[in-house]
Amino acid sequence: MESIEILVLGTARDWLAEGHRVMLATVVRTWGSSPRPVGSMMALRDDGRAVGSVSGGCIEDDLIHCYTRAFGDVEMPRGAPALVRYGVSADEAHRFGLPCGGTLELVLEFEPVEALLAELLGSLERGLLVRRVLSVDDGQVLLFSTALPEALQFDGRILVNTLGPGYRMLLIGAGALAEYLATMALFNGFRVTVCDPRTEYRSSWAVAGTEIVTGMPDDEVLAFKPDMRSCVIALSHDPKLDDLALLAALHSPAFYVGAIGSRRNDRNRRDRFIDHFDESESSLQRLRGPVGIYIGSKTPAEIAVSIMAEVLATKNGVKLTPAQSVACAKNEHDAALDTA
Asked: CA 198, CA 80: separation in Å to the nearest integer?
């Protein structure tokens, strides 16, 4: 499954190519609680069809009523982008389903240029990071290549939105747990690559939409070229496959690197890295293990939920407490049994 930004932009490009009028809506500011974060996008076609989301649904309905002919003879405006705000009053917030007096502001682009959307999508599909700069005064759009992700910026006149390739996940090991985790990652917009040189494991792999690679995991990590939108997770339980791959990933910009295993296996792994690969407790702080948020998971499906939750929390900048980790929770559980 492709990222929602690529889906919105790609659909807008296709609609324009078919001869439709298209409006792009982007959330540029929020106050209080908001159903969707800054940067969320929606494409709206002149006949009322829509893709993407800027709220829980009520604002989308209002945009369809106000800017399309779905419920009348309304013509989509032309000209410079517009700035609209929802939820200014308590009554309006309630009407549009905004929680706790939340307010959000949207920039509406009435005449996106098909060629520029195609150029932007081409860069994103090649794995590039692109800064899209929109002038609200006249609707002019400029595209610039950039090296680092940046938060959306809007000063009332200029909207700067850095768009990057979709998030990627590399899984080491093609077992049952990897199948559940890959499925969840796909539904969350990740491109998933699974590495397993063992024929007996990958021959039964059945998750459509993933890429299978068969080289040694450390070589495949290097070929994968992890960036700030990548995560690498070792699931094979085999140190011959996991260890060198994890070391390569730890020395990359990947936002998440982790491995499955018991607390004892995790400690043994860290000791091996320190004793034989010149790592230190400090250099291993980025290594997550045992991976996942503690939810008392037992089955492969439940463990995959736990891991995916930790990956998403890390991706979204949520600071997890030690008490939420699998190791800490199990240590506390063991201590409670010892004192019972």
From this structure: 57
